[in-house]
Amino acid sequence: MDTRTRGAVSALLAVGLLAGCGDDAAPTGATAGEPAPQATGEPWYDEVGPASPGGTTGGTGSPCPVPVSFPLADGWTAKAIEPPKGELAELVGEALTKRGGTTVRCEVDGRSAGGGFLRIWAADTPTIAPRAALEGFAAGGGETISGQQVRDLRAGGFDATEMTWLATSALAEEESRNWALAVQSAGQTLVFAVNEGLITERTDVLPAYRLAVHGLAAAG
What we know:
Elements: H1 3-14, E1 53-57, E2 68-73, E3 77-80, H2 89-97, E4 98-99, E5 102-109, E6 117-123, H3 130-139, E7 144-155, E8 158-168, E9 175-185, E10 188-195, H4 202-214, E11 217-218
Antiparallel strand pairs: 1-2, 2-11, 3-5, 4-5, 5-6, 6-10, 7-8, 8-9, 9-10
């Protein structure tokens, strides 16, 4: 699939079709296992706190079949992602479910609560290091990326790596801020990702994302 087609798919994802290295220095003092340093404003916006919880998901048999559990923001719902079917399946199926060496496993939809989407991806190479998984994920969206920053932190019960970057769609010429966090659990590397989009701002997606990653635990 060429870059323009992947750019078009990325733009569609930003408005919910799926539901329907640069500057990579970690902030001073960031080491694995420590809480994230508080960095207000661009690019981390740590002043945006977690949302109020409204349930949990994760684990075998859940709508999000991954080896971790995490809290859901109030009004947000989780569902498994199935490959598209019908006439467009061959064209866009892999682009909608694959990205930079990962496969999407589930989506947490917050549109009914005025939010956007949180998606959870599993690395196709299960034991890939979190940072490498994030770098592949960021580069795999068919967009021009810049301003990458990385930090290590503690996410619930896990050591984790978090990345933020700017992505520009070749089709829509729209620049958006992305955030993603990767952890390893039960021999699997997972990526939790959100982004600002055409109709979502950081305050629409970061609270649910922060709640989820701050509450990560091994699935029982």
